[in-house]
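New to this. Help decode the following:
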Amino acid sequence: MICAIVPVKALALAKGRLSSILTAAERRALVLAMLGDVLAALGAARGVDHVGVISADDTVLALALARGAEALYDRAPGLNAALAQAAGHYADAGALATLVLPADVPLVAPGEIEWLVAARDGAKGGLIAPSRDGGTNALLVWPPLALPFLFGQQSLARHQAAARVRALALRTFHTPGLELDVDRPDDLLLLAEAPGASAAQRLVRALNLCERMACVGGV
């Protein structure tokens, strides 16, 4: 059994780096739209047996249930502890591997998830999809607790270092849909300009972002 874990911050705290461009209500709508896109991709991907969303936000957990995912209430202090909580839950349930897929990669396609899962081999190992700034946009680990979760700044290098210490083969995995994580204002423009019509893309295209960013930049 392969279980996917989608971590989501409380909506009031999510995407603070976009506060210069988006209102609180718009950031909330964006997070929910991106989460919907990621859950849709996971739900359509063959090879993923179970999907869980871990969050302390009731609205997020309600959306997870409505989309057929398991709602895991986050009782941990911080993202990495929450991921360990979820991975432990699925390890106890008999999972062979866990796939961490954050909710802010709305361009990921079902086929890309299938390729990632199908690339798993051996009794122990990992696959990591890097972000453009040295972070981690997806992490598949088998067995589920073989590697500590070290998401945050420069998490790619930190995950790789932790894997070396544990003699765990951690391979990088690159696909277009896993390259963009939406954290900064420029990411919104990339999301809007990318091919496709996901819920998050439709939302950001309706927000007149070019005009807003010109105003913020003093152009």
